[in-house]
Design goal:
The chain is mainly α. It has one domain (about 20-205). The chain has helices at about 20-30, 60-65, 70-85, 90-110, 115-120, 120-150, 150-170, 180-185, 190-200; strands at about 40-45, 50, 55-60. The longest helix has 27 residues, at about 120-150. The structure holds zinc ion. Zinc ion binds near residues 1, 79, 83, 137 and 140. Zinc ion binds near residues 83 and 140.
């Protein structure tokens, strides 16, 4: 997941999506309500996926979709739908800023002057943001597989993402954008995501709801 970035998005010409009907069915099965007019968008020359949590759009990079088969595309969509279904964006904001408020208030009352407390409170804010972000990625992977029932395609999807990242880092593909770099900090490494899916598909703490 990368946060909202809707420049140059194509909403009509969705030919890079190999089976739109199957992906819409999947959204229905997962009880994810997408925007009725513009549920999906395609961004040319892009390797990532983005969701608009307010308008319920899912935007796929065309270059990424071109590289994936139908089942891998379904798992990619299921991962993004999980972020929407479990309201990940709202939880990460509420919990991180909640912790920030508590830490800053406690420090201001008992330890430091107010301004310094607000600054020091940023440390747990960022730490929570990164920890929760990574946990949410694992959860979105697990939930996606539990809906698609297709662990094999999820693993090959993650493997292709890994190959793409390796090519980007080696300069064989255009370098990651700033949003992609931010997103990398919030995601666990692809190697760890693959390991988690391979070994422990049903960890209880990733299935709390
Ligand atoms: Zn994600």
């Amino acid at each position: 997941m990368i946060f909202i970035d809707e420049k140059n998005v194509e909403w009509q010409n969705l030919k890079a999506m190999k089976n739109i009907a199957a992906i819409k069915d999947l959204a229905n099965n997962m009880k994810v309500k997408l925007d009725e007019e513009k549920p999906f968008g395609i961004k040319p020359d892009w390797y990532s996926t983005s969701i608009n949590v307010y308008k319920k759009h899912v935007i796929f990079g065309e270059t990424l979709l071109d590289d994936l088969n139908e089942d891998e595309q379904k798992n990619l969509a299921a991962h993004e739908f999980s972020h929407l279904k479990y309201h990940h964006f709202y939880w990460i904001i509420i919990v991180s800023f909640g912790i920030y408020a508590i830490v800053s208030l406690v420090l201001a009352k008992y330890v430091f002057p107010n301004e310094l407390s607000l600054f020091i409170g940023l440390i747990p804010l960022f730490a929570m943001f990164i920890m929760i972000g990574k946990w949410q990625e694992y959860q979105a992977d697990m939930k996606a597989v539990s809906f698609t029932k297709d662990k094999k395609s999820m693993l090959s999807l993650l493997d292709k993402l890994y190959q793409m990242k390796t090519k980007q880092d080696a300069g064989k593909l255009p370098p990651p954008t700033i949003m992609e770099r931010v997103s990398r900090i919030l995601h666990p490494s692809l190697v760890n995501r693959i390991r988690r899916i391979e070994k422990q598909p049903n960890l209880w703490f990733l299935n709390p709801f």
